[in-house]
Design goal:
Blueprint lengths: L1 E3 L5 E4 L1 H7 L3 H4 L13 H13 L6 E5 L19 E7 L7 E3 L5 E3 L8 E6 L6 H17 L3 E8 L2 E7 L1 H7 L3 H4 L4 H5 L5 H12 L4 E9 L2 E12 L7 E8 L1 H38 L3 H32 L6 E3 H15 L4 E5 L5 E3 L3 H15 L6 E8 L3 E8 L6 H8 L13 H12 L3 E7 L2 E9 L6
Helix pairs in contact: 9-10, 10-14, 11-12, 12-14
């Protein structure tokens, strides 16, 4: 360590500090600290000293610099380009409050204002060294080059994002060469004319240091595509504003979703209408015929038609649940269980419902929990004898809640539960009747939960593991 007075003169230097400079401690006293600070580093050191003197209380400040002993040590110009030492300055007071010792028996008086005399401790730099910075830069460059998404580094010049660098993913996704776009306005290449105002808003947010996140349409060399866009601002400390734009191409996913929605709606609408006609005609045939064979055939037609209509209705319910993009809400699982069970007591009078529920169990799933639970309960009731017993148990665990729905029926056919719970292939036989279980799985997993199935001792159990609401964790 060392101590400097109000004039910036070294009035004490430890042997360790002197050894670091390759000089004698006594030879350092009485010389300006600026003599030992490397070229270009003194303004920062002086500013740190002044800040400590002006500060109220006993605050410390840090800075980094190069040090040498001048004529008594290595030349500053031969020192490494990087500051090699960190100095922590703080107001300095002697051990008895009235003076300072130099370790050799000599004493020097302090100014009455203790903030006038400053002590400094030297240590290895706590901030990243040049080698570490180079390593981090290399790691960033590796990520920048290998990531499949399109990444653009740009500088906001005026109101334009001027391209400074692009990764190979950008060239592959957008079809523009790096040399062609570097130094040019990014908007001129990839923003369609009808999205100019949107792009200007994003650029202004970047200039203000704010991040962006949106689904956007952008122009590529092969036409328009849809992207998930993320804009990340950053600063280099040079007074300019920079940013990264990351574009993930989601065109195929969005088009596939749109195609599926259209096909589902058309199919469900046509299926429902046509099957209602078939069902009506089957009933007319049954009423008009006296032939038992014809009556039996018409009855089978009606039964299968009703099955198809139920599958269509389940598909409609599933689509409505999956299209619901609202964020999860806190619901009371206990209230949800009771709301699902009560109307089914009337519909299934021979069934026994055994409930083991806490007074309240808030979970983060939202209203869709009711549809999921209803599918589990319906499955337990519809594919079992009339006098089935359905047990529903809910309890709180450490960070989760569990809902267990058990029945003493024959259990879920293996071809159904294996596809849903064991990642088996979805076969033609499991497309329809297992749809309710798929809805349960999708709803629970979308909320960060898990669905399990178990068959043991004559009982089938579907367990829903759900995240507790934050306030109950």
């Amino acid at each position: 360590m060392f101590v400097v007075d109000a004039a910036g003169t070294v009035i004490h230097a430890s042997d360790e500090f002197a050894a670091h400079l390759g000089a004698d401690a006594a030879a350092l006293r009485g010389r300006p600290l600026s003599d030992f600070v490397g070229d270009g580093d003194w303004p920062d050191v002086r500013g740190t000293l002044d800040a400590v003197r002006r500060a109220s209380g006993w605050e410390s400040r840090r800075c980094r610099c190069r040090l040498s002993a001048g004529d008594d040590g290595p030349a500053v110009g031969d020192a490494p380009a990087e500051p090699d030492i960190e100095l922590e300055f703080a107001p300095y007071r002697g051990g008895d409050g009235g003076g300072y010792g130099d370790g050799d028996g000599d004493r020097f008086d302090s100014d009455s204002d203790a903030n006038r005399v400053v002590g400094a401790v030297c240590r290895e730099p706590s901030e990243p060294t040049t080698a570490r910075l180079h390593t981090e830069r290399d790691r960033f460059d590796h990520l920048f080059d290998l990531i499949d998404d399109a990444v653009i580094e740009f500088e906001i010049v005026g109101i334009e994002p001027v391209v400074r660098a692009v990764n190979p993913g950008f060239e592959s996704v957008f079809g523009y060469d790096a040399d062609e776009i570097r130094g040019e306005s990014l908007n001129d290449f990839i923003v369609p004319p009808d999205a100019d105002d949107e792009a200007v808003d994003f650029d202004q947010r970047t200039a203000d240091g704010k991040a962006n996140h949106a689904v956007v349409t952008r122009q590529t060399a092969w036409g328009r595509r849809e992207f998930l866009y993320r804009g990340i601002p950053y600063s280099r400390g040079d007074g300019k504003q920079y940013g990264f734009s990351i574009y993930s191409d989601i065109t195929s996913q969005r088009r596939a979703r749109e195609h599926l929605q259209v096909l589902q709606r058309v199919l469900r609408h046509n299926l429902r209408n046509e099957m209602n006609v078939v069902l009506g005609m089957a009933e007319e045939i049954r009423e008009a015929t006296a032939d038992s064979h014809v009556d039996h055939a018409a009855a089978r037609i009606a039964a299968h038609t009703e099955t198809l209509l139920r599958v269509s209705e389940k598909a409609r319910t599933a689509a409505a649940v999956l299209d619901d993009q609202r964020p999860d809400e806190v619901v009371d699982a206990t209230e949800t269980v009771r709301a699902v069970v009560e109307p089914r007591r009337t519909r299934f009078p021979a069934a026994t419902f055994d409930l083991d529920l806490p007074p309240s169990l808030p979970v983060s799933v939202g209203p869709k929990l009711a549809q999921a639970l209803a599918n589990v309960v319906e499955n337990a009731l519809e594919h079992t004898p009339e006098d089935v017993t359905v047990r529903i148990e809910a309890k709180r665990c450490e960070n989760d809640a569990t809902l267990r729905v058990s029945d003493d029926g024959d259990g879920i056919p293996e071809i159904e539960w294996a596809a849903v719970f064991a990642d088996e292939d979805i076969t033609q036989l499991s497309h329809g009747s297992g749809l309710g279980l798929w809805v349960v799985k999708w709803v629970v997993e979308s909320a960060g939960g898990r669905v399990d199935y178990d068959r043991r001792n004559g009982w089938s159990t579907v367990q829903l593991t759900l995240p507790l609401a934050d306030g109950s964790r």
